[in-house]
Write a structure and sequence with these properties.
Layout: H1 5-10, E1 19-23, H2 29-37, E2 43-48, H3 51-63, E3 69-73, E4 89-95, H4 104-114, E5 115-126, H5 143-152, E6 155-161, E7 167-174
Parallel strand pairs: 1-2, 1-4, 2-3, 4-5
Antiparallel strand pairs: 5-7, 6-7
Length: about 180
């Protein structure tokens, strides 16, 4: 029923040695799957504004033997809020985050800043509210709006992925 982080990560084309940033990582389902996909090479930067979720992620990663995740307390909506270097990241993960943030453009600008030329962004978000299963109807961030926003900010659609019955999945490439 819900979007499956493992299946979505498998569709990203993650390669050994990549640097990945999970914006709004929460308790880290995507960070953990990305860390596993890297097979102990590369690094995942899990960024969230909620310290308690980052602590939970750090504990889970340690317990599950995923040691290539670095947690960062930061604000993905602000320029330099992720504390990552310019042009340092190969892939940014935005899973179920755009419907929640106030400054969506700020998130896209920060992703663009940290991505290397040709870097990609995986966007997973709800297609609808589904009678309260997902976000409130007024908070749903439609696929078309995501496309407009990313294209306006210097990205082009690389491809769509199958992200589950209730979600869309888009991979954008930095121009």
């Amino acid at each position: 029923m819900f979007s499956d982080p493992k299946k979505n990560i498998e569709q990203c084309g993650i390669q050994a040695g990549m640097e990945i940033a999970d914006f709004g990582s929460g308790s880290g389902h995507y960070s953990l799957e990305a860390g596993r996909a890297l097979i102990s090479t590369g690094r995942v930067y899990a960024i969230d504004i909620q310290q308690e979720l980052l602590t939970k992620l750090k504990n889970t990663a340690s317990r599950e033997g995923v040691y290539n995740i670095e947690v960062i307390w930061g604000d993905i909506e602000k320029l330099n809020g992720t504390k990552l270097k310019d042009n340092s990241i190969d892939l940014v993960l935005l899973s179920n985050i755009l419907f929640q943030v106030d400054d969506k453009e700020g998130v896209v600008r920060e992703a663009k800043r940290v991505l290397r030329p040709g870097g990609r962004v995986l966007v997973i978000d709800w297609t609808d509210s589904f009678g309260g299963l997902g976000p409130k109807p007024e908070m749903v961030f439609r696929k078309e709006k995501a496309g407009e926003m990313f294209e306006k900010n210097g990205f082009h659609l690389d491809r769509e992925i199958l992200a589950g019955v209730h979600h869309y999945g888009l991979i954008y490439k930095k121009l």
